[in-house]
Specification:
CATH class of the largest domain: Alpha Beta
Distance between the termini: 24 Å
Shape: globular
Number of domains: 2
Largest sheet: 8 strands, antiparallel
Strand order of the largest sheet: 1-2-3-5-4-6-7-8
Order of helices and strands: HHHHEEEEEHEEEEHEHEH
Strand content: 15-25%
């Protein structure tokens, strides 16, 4: 299990480390994540500049820096933030309900499990089995798994290579009702590399990947 935690943690933490962000750039990064949590959607560059009291051009440059480091998903022709790991700016199969916050969406199942730890909030995650499409739920509070339905819930940790993980891995990192459903799915795409995780293992991966992103 330790290897899974380190691999996933390194994906985001090493990218953040390699980016060598300035203090101001890191403030913008954290503000983007907080805005997603509060509003359930991506902030505009104008909103970030206003809230932080920074020049528009400075925030725009920072967004491009964050995108180049694969810390956010950015649409340059419209100068829009599309997503910011672990948040998705468009609806996905993984909805995260945080008490007192607008519902938000995660980019994948692992991201959804990491959001409560990043924010220090309890959360209820609503998703679906990627094979049979039946509803699944995960409730987290006090940093602990409170309930998973189904009780046999598992997740897939993709190791597919790609310069943008939002495109390469996130669509594959989903929940499954049980191991049999995961195996049935994987039998249709044997070329996909990754690992099956129990819900408790997946929770630890999400915590290790995203728990310290706002510290």
């Amino acid at each position: 299990m330790q290897d899974h935690r380190v691999e996933t943690r390194n994906n985001i933490v090493e990218r953040l480390s390699r980016a060598q962000l300035s203090s101001q750039e890191d403030t913008v990064r954290k503000s983007i994540l907080k805005a997603f949590a509060d509003a359930g959607k991506a902030p505009s560059v104008q909103e970030l500049a206003h809230d932080l009291g920074l020049p528009f051009t400075s925030v725009l440059k920072t967004c491009r820096t964050l995108a180049a480091a694969d810390l956010i998903v950015w649409q340059d022709d419209t100068t829009r933030i599309m997503s910011a790991y672990p948040f998705s700016g468009i609806p996905t199969a993984h909805q995260v309900l945080l008490a007192g916050h607008t519902p938000c969406y995660a980019m994948c199942a692992i991201d959804a499990l990491g959001i409560p730890f990043m924010l220090g909030h309890g959360a209820s995650i609503r998703s679906a089995c990627f094979f049979c499409h039946n509803s699944v739920t995960v409730d987290i509070d006090g940093g602990l798994l409170q309930r998973a339905h189904t009780s046999t819930l598992v997740g897939w940790l993709s190791t597919r290579d790609g310069c943008c993980l939002a495109e390469a891995r996130c669509p594959l990192m989903n929940f499954f009702c049980d191991e049999s459903h995961l195996h049935a799915w994987h039998a249709t795409c044997l070329q996909e590399s990754g690992t099956s995780l129990s819900i408790l293992e997946a929770l630890e991966v999400g915590k290790a990947a995203f728990g310290a992103l706002l510290t």
